[in-house]
Amino acid sequence: MRSTSPELDAGELISFRTADGVDLRLRRVGPADAPAVLLVHGHGVSSEMFALPEIRNVTDALADAGYQSWLLDWRGSSRLPHNTSGRPYTFDDVALYDLPAAVAQIRERIGDRPLFVVAHCIGALALALSMTGGLLPGLAGVVAQGVFLTPKVSTSARMRVLVGSELMGSRVTHIESDFRKVGLWNRRTLLYAALSRKGDCPDPTCRMVHGGWGMGTKLFEHDHLDARTHDRLADLFGAIPLSVLPHLRQMELAHAVLRWNIDDERYSALPQNALDQADRIDCPVLLLSGSRNAAWLDSNRLCYEVLSARNPGVDVRYTEIPSYGHLDTFIGRGAALDVFGYIVDFLDETSARLA
Ligand SMILES: [Zn+2]
């Protein structure tokens, strides 16, 4: 296992196993006896995206505002072995097993204190599937960054997911983000040539991160990153298992969060289409997006419009962060000033209404 930041090592570490036997972990940082916030990372990165020591990160901002953070590493974490060596999985498994198990672990320890969730990207898609399946009742409030119930990507990204899906059944099982692990000449070089867009950045790993998980679009605004963060992108990003791509493609084509395992009884708790069960969302929702989110475009604005029109009973609001892209809303050097205030205000306002 690679090293993590000292800040994370200082927190309380809880290892737990999901009902289908996958070992995950949670780390708690911030004040004791405070309202809790579960932080759910995107795919191919890890909980470290919320706790970069080189910037004022979201756990710092939450602690100062009187909230404790619970950093989950779900099965798609770049810091856990399951993502690269475990059996293939889809986001159904994250929604059915990982998120409910994490919430149960936290609730065991916080009693009846409020529990919020802040989720990014694929983490927010899985959260949408869990919540509309009624698997996470009684949350105090939810923040979804980039995407929630209505995934939408650019045409070029859609083509790249298609290319990736076509590789299923070949010997390629993962898309690496680290250029050093691929090298200049091996079997997969042609794939990377296809996936990596000719970016402006001279760092090949940065181009691969964008070409892989960014699917050819910008994952973040370069100017928003601290140089130290940019220098260790290869460490922050892990591999992407191809097993998730058909599910992702299906959802994106439908512009809706869908269950993949339709004929498998084990997954019957999950809705076939999360949007059709949006009325099961029982807490306030803040949809966040950078105005330049190239990964999910205006998915969250669309989600806001759809929910407002179809589910007037759901308390939903939308905040757009000017000039921000996707991942820089959490890993950007200025995110504490530009982004986290919206999250804290939402948590404070929702807490006040609960009191
Ligand atoms: Zn770069």
TrEMBL record:
The keyword Oxidoreductase applies. Gene3D superfamilies: alpha/beta hydrolase (3.40.50.1820). One of its GO terms (molecular function) is hydrolase activity. Coiled coil: none annotated. It comes from the Bacteria. Residues 35-125 form the AB hydrolase-1 domain. The keyword Cell cycle does not apply. Keywords: FAD, Flavoprotein, Hydrolase, Oxidoreductase. Pfam families: Abhydrolase_1. Its cofactor is FAD. InterPro entries: AB_hydrolase_1 (IPR000073), AB_hydrolase_fold (IPR029058), Cholesterol_Oxidase (IPR052542). Belongs to the GMC oxidoreductase family. This is Alpha/beta fold hydrolase.
